Amino acid sequence: MSGVAVHRVVEGPGDGPVVVFSNSIGSDHRMWAPQVAPLVERGYRVVRYDTRGHGASPVPHGPYELADLGGDVLALLDDLGVEQAHFVGLSLGGMTGMWLGVHAPERVRSLTLCCTSAKLGPPQGWADRAKLVRAEGTAAIAEAGVGRWVTPAYAQAHPDEIAYLRAMVADTPDEGYAACCGVIERMDQLADLPKITAPTLVISGADDPATPPDPHGKLIAKGIPGARLEVVASAAHLGNYEQPEEFTRLILERITEAA
């Protein structure tokens, strides 16, 4: 495990409780834009970062493992002088959060795990997607990816947002995306869930085709002691973006209770 210096955007008061936001595969820190102002207004120090291989972060040679992504977060916290933070992650970001909860519990004040999974198969599907991206680039999977991110109703009502999200996927470095596919291909955290001691909230989108609440959200909430599951209506995989008010309300509720 060796941490890389990931790109980060830090907003809010320097002395506020720290909330770290971790992006999904194929996105970057901008996916969390709807959550920034409401948290900053309440005195939180909001840290958004780009997972390695995404956005403006380095794209080190692969393969990557989940421990690498978790190590990057620990290096980020060390660089910012933060001993402990609330952690909010969606999809790949949520997988990183679970790893931190198991392997670095002293650094995690609370966990909010959004639209994610502790084991997301089949492995061959991720291997095939990585192969496609290496051959044709992330633009080849942008339309299908965003099709999982939002519901058809949202896509029809917000064509400009759909174009923005597709560009975000297409701008993701090919090798970074493919190497993170490998992380998900090999990930299985189900047996480790009972080791997580941080106060945990699991949020699922009711219409998420990638990580539906049953079984994914239910398995995580059942496996982590004291965790609870909230299912948000009219939300697909990028639920925080499609239903920002409800996701923000739930995130604030979790971090406020943990404080």
Automatic annotation (TrEMBL):
Q: What is the top-level taxon of the source organism?
A: Bacteria
InterPro entries per the UniProt record, alphabetical? AB_hydrolase_1, AB_hydrolase_fold, AB_hydrolase_sf, PcaD/CatD
Entry keywords, A to Z:
Hydrolase
At the top of the EC hierarchy, this enzyme's class is hydrolase
Task: Supply the Gene3D superfamilies for this chain.
Answer: alpha/beta hydrolase
Residues annotated as domain AB hydrolase-1: 17-243
Which EC number(s) are documented for this chain? Answer: 3.1.1.24
Instruction: Respond yes or no to whether keyword Hydrolase is given for this record.
Output: yes
| Gene Ontology MF, one | 3-oxoadipate enol-lactonase activity
Instruction: Write the protein's name.
Output: 3-oxoadipate enol-lactonase
Q: Which gene is this protein's source?
A: pcaD
